[in-house]
From TrEMBL:
Stretches of the chain forming a coiled coil according to its record: none
Protein name: Putative inner membrane or exported protein
Pfam families to which the protein is assigned, alphabetical: DUF302
Annotated source species: Oceanicola granulosus (strain ATCC BAA-861 / DSM 15982 / KCTC 12143 / HTCC2516)
Keywords of this entry: Signal
Ranges where the DUF302 domain occurs: 53-115
Signal among keywords: yes
Signal sequence interval, chain numbering: 1-20
Length: 148
């Protein structure tokens, strides 16, 4: 009986590290406006945008509701290729992604997973220069997109 009572606590503790690997910031403007700024920041930095996924529109297509949420998928071979040279399985996590969404309180948020965390189970050094550049780029893109 005691073990059953501990199950929620154990589950919460197990999820905590995963949540800690997600970076988030609050942004000014609608999801579409913030995503436009994010896409501009990414392309101005020389990265390639592969897709812009509108999750809200996808939900509407199947007659379901979802708060506004868009995902940007992008990359730069100058950073991604060295990661894949170190461990080809990095290709499971690349290209990089950032999510812009409306949270439960109505705020627009930008979220992304830290590259160091993406590569945790791979043969990639956490201190590799390309990992640090990815982290810096994501933070920079978020900062540019968040400002109204």
């Amino acid at each position: 009986m005691r073990l059953a009572a501990l199950a929620p606590l154990v589950a919460a503790l197990a999820a905590a590290p995963a949540l800690a690997d997600i970076e988030q910031t609050t942004a000014t403007g609608s999801v579409a406006e913030v995503m436009d700024r994010l896409e501009s920041a990414v392309t101005e930095a020389g990265a390639t945008v592969f897709a812009r996924v509108d999750h809200g529109a996808g939900a509407a297509d199947v007659e379901m509701s979802l708060a506004p949420a868009e995902l940007l998928i992008f990359g730069n071979p100058r950073l991604g290729t060295p990661a894949m040279q170190a461990d080809i399985l990095a290709g499971l996590h690349l290209p990089l992604k950032m999510l812009v969404y409306t949270d439960s309180e109505g705020a627009t948020r930008i979220a992304w997973i830290e590259p160091e965390a993406l590569f945790d189970d791979l043969e990639i050094d956490d201190d590799a220069q390309y990992v640090e550049k990815m982290e810096d780029a994501l933070a920079s893109f978020a900062e540019a997109a968040a400002a109204g």
